[in-house]
Amino acid sequence: MFNSYRRFTFSRISIQLALLITAIVFFPQMLIGQSSKPLLAEKEKFIGIGVGIQRMSVNDEIGSNLTYTGAAATWLLSYATVDTTRLHTLNLRYARTSFTNDLSEGRADGTQLSLRYQYQPKLLRFNRLDANLYLGPYLSFNAFPRSFLYSPYSVTTDTGDFFGSVGLSGTLIKPISVRTFVQASMSVPVISYLLSREFTGSTTQDWAFINQLIDYRFSISYIRALSEKWVFRTDYNFLYYQADRVNDVTYGGHRLLFGLGIRL
Amino acid sequence: MKKYYLILLLLAGSSCERLLIEENPQNTLVENFEVFWQEFDRHYSFLALKQIDWDSVYQINRPRVARFTTNKELYDLFEEIILNLEDGHVNLFAGNRSVRYDFTEGFPVNSPEFASRYLENVIQPADQIFYADVVNTNLGFISIRSFGGNQAAFENIDVIIQQFADKAGIIIDVRSNGGGSDTNSNTIAARFTDQRRLYRRFRYRNGPQSTDFTDWLDDYIEPKGTYFSRPVAVLTNRGCYSATEDFILAMRQFSQVTVVGGVTGGGSGNPIIRELPNGWVFRLSSWMVASPDFTIYEGIGLAPDVQVTISEADIAEERDTILEEAIKLLQ
């Protein structure tokens, strides 16, 4: 019964995703070739929405000694301003994933919500590469509540990570053509305020420094102007999280997103 | 070309994830034993207290498991190990079979089965609770069969106490209540105190050594809802376990409360759930609890203020002598 549930869930997600990605990827492709304003010629403001798929693994000592893995649709709302001197980015991400493992019949349902703002002044210009490096602080709030269900024993364990971080983020922007640029970013938190569940079931709240909480994120994006108004964007993200507390929590994975943006 | 870079990056990232996040063990008899042993070694809170030589459990049994050929043999071994721990919070669930230590064995049953003979006007507002009048007295009676389930069921306590506003006292029967949630047990206990009181201390295993624990942490019970200040008797037996013992720990801090009956089961472990590669699930105790004076009652139980045992002769006459003693005390 459980296996059929898993197949049903994944199949439903896959169909939804396929339709969404088809709409988002192919519709803009039809617009390419129309006249478009060069990108990054002047200050650019984008607002966009993205959808994609993520595959993540979670090893949460409170929930289980086993590593759980799951794939799900993920959503992104984004606002960004880019010019030659600074970069502002505001991102809101959401994903709801059903994690399973190949060994037991356990399941973990998790919801990820993340809000991140980063401000990055230009640090360096690489003339030979024709690229700019921006470096600056970010502020993020993250929630990842999870509920483990040990089917068929009908016992659940609720756990999760809730943290706010201030960290450092670097972004390299390189124009490929007048209509296209690529962007690579990575970030690490310096100090975080972490709410975590302990084995006792109680919640602890404490500051976590760079050696106690890792929330490493890497992304590479391909951005292409489709017209005067529209921008197409593809993002690959890798993230890795580890909180070294009384009980260890590690999770990480990949996201691939396709998005459509409006140039304001 | 860009496409190939992207694929390369995904592959590199994928490997990265596998390197960083622990992979699951193989489902073999030996690996199942290894996981079982390691999880107890790392998390079980009573190895030192119960003077269990866990390394020798490994040394003796690991070679045996290497010769096993069936899950049945492994199950029998786990059953033997678990029962030797004498801890009701340690269980194994393997398909339709399960292992559970019977902490009531060898103790008087002191069953509440004849209590209904002393009651009238019984009302049951929730599955876990019923209340009644004690016949020919001005006493109220509350039976709590479990502290499991939704907290809302236990919020009925305010209505019950309001119903008992004119009673000379209340008898709370928690005999054979195997526990549930301490949030629910505190919901009831909070109605019997008019001030914040320390009722238990706890510490949890936090390191690889069996003696690695956090500092003792204090737990308080706070007054809440309708306060009942008149005398209260709490009825106990060996079947009182886990969250029910938390309830008794709290209630015995209050001057108007007397605990009557038998010694409780002695289960303070707060179990966590672990999984084996073959799909079996087990629970193990992760912390220990002590009374405010640092008395650890794991495996021993909490003694009542007034010890009463229901004898075979009482059972033959369908008498509940624990309840009778409580009525005598409160009148």
Summarize the structure.
The complex is a heterodimer of chains A (264) and B (331). Chain A is mainly beta and 264 residues long.
Which properties best describe this structure?
heterodimer, A: 264 residues, mainly beta, 10-stranded antiparallel barrel, 1 helix, 11 strands, disordered N terminus, B: 331 residues, alpha/beta, 2-enoyl-CoA Hydratase, Chain A, domain 1, 2 domains, 7-stranded mixed beta sheet, 4-stranded antiparallel beta sheet, 32% helix, 22% strand, elongated
Arrangement of strands in the largest sheet of chain B: 3-4-5-6-9-10-14
* Structural class by sheet pairing and helices of chain A: mainly beta
What integer value in Å does the Rg of chain A equal? 20 Å
Q: What's the total helix number of chain B?
A: 10
Assembly state of the chains shown: heterodimer
Domain unit count of chain B: 2
Encode the helix/strand succession of chain A as letters: HEEEEEEEEEEE
Mean pLDDT of chain B: 94
Ends distance of chain B: 91 Å
Strand content of chain B: 15-25%
Global geometry of chain B = elongated
Mean pLDDT over all positions of chain A: 84
Q: How far is the N terminus from the C terminus of chain A?
A: 50 Å
Q: Structural class given helices, strands, pairing of chain B?
A: alpha/beta
Low-confidence sequence ranges of chain B: none
How would you characterize the largest beta sheet of chain B?
A: 7 strands, mixed
Please give the share of residues in helix of chain B. Answer: 25-40%
Order of helices and strands of chain B: HHHHEEEEEHHEHEEEHEEEEEHH
User: CATH top level of the largest domain in chain B?
Assistant: Alpha Beta
Question: How do the strands of the widest beta sheet of chain A line up side by side?
Answer: 1-2-3-4-5-6-7-9-10-11
